[in-house]
Write a structure and sequence with these properties.
By secondary structure, this protein is of the alpha/beta class. Helix content is 47%, strand content 16%.
């Protein structure tokens, strides 16, 4: 049965290989619709579909590949990479799938490439071109042909900061699925004891351990007290998806009556033109759309839609409270809960945050009475004072400091695993 499944997988892979030009054209127009410029678009397509990674310079050394799907995973990966000694850093291949993640990290002193199309041919050439001896998957992005090639070449794979969805957990109940997807993976580090117990029951032959979230802000320091203690008059609704628009509207109808400016920062900025029109029809002159946030505090409108990427840090630093979406739809898994707190903003979020379970557990250590329903969140925001926000920020700093030592020790364990077959 396993051989039959692998043969079926191989046939699908080769069918998709024949369809590469069609897939590339579709990808190009999809990215253009999302506002990606032509240069970045073509660079992604050429590396992902058409083997231009073969022409990328490499020193011939044995490498360790670290795969981080998008922005959040890249932040986690960089915490790990920064902890390595220089010799290992210089032999890291960091792969990403999103253009935003690539642009964020491409100027660092490490090799960054788009993850190639998941066919056996692409993956075999990629692994051999960069002499990849070990690979690390950050969180959850599993590709069957990549894992099949690593298994064929007897290379090792480790999953770090693991988040395994309920859907994947269901599939892992199949021995056939585990054989194909997890065979070269012998070590998995997850963020919570609950997930460790679930996986250990399903995969008793895999070493499953617990480590703190890789997204911990390891360089955290007490911000300038004037910035933290200044009264802030902005509320932020961030990272919302199209499927959560109804919930955004409910929050707006309640919070718009408070004495705050409301900033709306969606997850995918080019998907909300109809929503912006609906806002303008409902709130008239109260709504303004901006493409940057350098002077957003002085915008006169009560509701500001921010149509820009890479601005959340700046926005959180001026926000009294932030509601992090991606957590109000059961099909979603949540987004980073640490980012608002890092910049002194109180954080609220919905009931669906399976990818943020570790963060939720940590927040419960210093935030009393965390609630996830709309009415309770609105009530807590209305009652939140600047002094409350300062106390919670200080609790956050202390909690991160305690977890930081554990995480740094874990990074050393990963470095030792890499060194078991030393990089030349």
């Amino acid at each position: 049965m396993n051989k039959l499944f692998k043969f079926f997988l191989l046939m699908i892979s080769h069918f998709l290989l024949i369809s590469l030009p069609v897939l590339a054209i579709y990808s190009f127009f999809k990215m253009r619709k999302q506002g990606v410029n032509i240069k970045d678009n073509l660079q992604h397509i050429s590396q992902h579909y058409f083997f231009t990674f073969l022409f990328h310079g490499w020193n011939g050394n044995r490498s360790v590949m670290i795969h981080a799907i998008s922005l959040g995973e890249v932040d986690a990966a960089m915490n790990l990479i920064d902890s390595f000694e220089f010799k290992i850093q210089s032999n890291v291949i960091l792969t990403v799938t999103s253009i935003q993640a690539y642009k964020k990290i491409k100027n660092n002193n490490i090799t960054v490439l788009f993850f190639p199309f998941d066919s056996l041919i692409h993956q075999f050439l990629f692994v051999c071109r960069f002499n990849i001896k070990k690979a690390i998957i950050i969180e959850h992005d599993f590709w069957p042909n990549f894992l099949a090639v690593m298994n064929l070449l007897r290379r090792e794979v480790m999953v770090l900061n693991g988040h395994i969805s309920d859907k994947t957990m269901y599939y892992l109940g199949s021995a056939c699925y585990r054989e194909v997807m997890f065979h070269p993976i012998k070590n998995v580090y997850v963020q919570t004891d609950v997930l460790q117990k679930k996986l250990s029951h399903i995969m008793p032959d895999v070493n499953i351990s617990v480590a703190p979230s890789y997204k911990l802000p390891l360089n955290l320091h007490i911000q300038d007290i004037e910035n933290i203690s200044t009264e802030r008059k902005i509320l932020t609704i961030s990272n919302f998806h199209l499927s959560e628009i109804d919930t955004v509207n409910i929050f707006l109808s309640t919070l718009n009556g408070l004495d705050y400016k409301i900033l709306l920062v969606p997850r995918h900025i080019h998907s909300f033109d109809d929503f912006i029109l609906a806002l303008e029809n409902t709130y008239k002159d109260q709504v303004q759309v901006v493409s940057e946030c350098s002077d957003v505090e002085n915008v006169l409108s009560d509701i500001v839609f921010v149509k820009a990427y890479g601005v959340l840090d700046e926005i959180y630093s001026i926000s009294h409270a932030s509601i992090v979406f991606g957590s109000f739809d059961s099909s979603l898994k949540g987004h980073s809960l640490f980012e608002p707190l890092l910049y002194g903003s109180m954080v609220y979020y919905g009931p669906y945050f399976s990818s943020q379970t570790y963060m939720d557990e940590l927040l419960h250590c210093f935030i009393p009475n965390i609630r996830h329903d709309i009415d309770s969140i609105c009530q807590q925001i209305e009652m939140l004072t600047t002094q409350d926000r300062i106390l919670i920020y200080n609790g956050f700093v202390n909690a991160v400091g305690e977890e930081k030592d554990i995480l740094i020790g874990h990074f050393k364990d990963v470095e030792r695993w890499i060194k078991t077959e030393r990089l030349r």
